[in-house]
Amino acid sequence: MAAHEELPADADAAAIEQLHSIRESIDNIDAALIHLLAERFKFTQSVGRLKAAHGLPAADPARELMQIDRLRGLAEEAHLDPAFAEKFLNFIIAEVIHHHVKIAGGPAVAPGRAAGAAPAVSPIVAS
Ligand SMILES: O=C(O)C(=O)C[C@]1(C(=O)O)C=C[C@@H](O)C=C1
User: Fold this and answer.
1) Non-local CB neighbours of 79 within 8 Å, separated by 6+ positions
2) Which of 17, 55, 91, 104 is the least crowded, having the fewest Cβ atoms under 10 Å away?
3) CA of 114 to the centre of ligand 1 (A)
4) Atom 3 in ligand 1: which residue has the minimum CA distance?
């Protein structure tokens, strides 16, 4: 069923009720994710200002590799696809670096790294 399609009128009422109940939890989790991301970006903005004030580079590939390694481990423990966890973190970090570069008054995109791209060097091989 396409995303825009409505549920069939003759669908089982109990199943629809269960679907709505599950969707409530999904909506709560999505809201929590947005709030968590907003908090994370507040902290990374502080990091961006600190780095800009002290002439530190926007990206820290060694730190990123440690974060990826750690999150892949956490994902495995939580039965979440580690490759997805890595992609998700890289997506967020690319945006953070974009912010850092803007705060520092540099080009909108860090050299050699498009928004959403994986780090330039990543020895961690997807399993
Ligand atoms: O910890 C830093 O140095 C940050 O700038 C934060 C952060 C992150 O979002 O976690 C972003 C960019 C760096 O390459 C590494 C980590």
Assistant:
1) none
2) 55
3) 16
4) 60
| Cβ-based neighbour number of residue 94 at 10 Å | 19
- ipTM above threshold 0.95: yes
Q: Could you tell me if 52 and 103 are in contact, meaning their C-beta atoms sit under 8 angstroms apart?
A: yes
The secondary structure of 70-123 as a DSSP string is HHHHHHHHTT--HHHHHHHHHHHHHHHHHHHHHHTT--SS-TT--TTPPPS---
59 lines ligand 1 (CB under 6 A): yes
Is residue 118 predicted with pLDDT exceeding 50? no
Q: pTM, whole model, 2 decimals?
A: 0.81
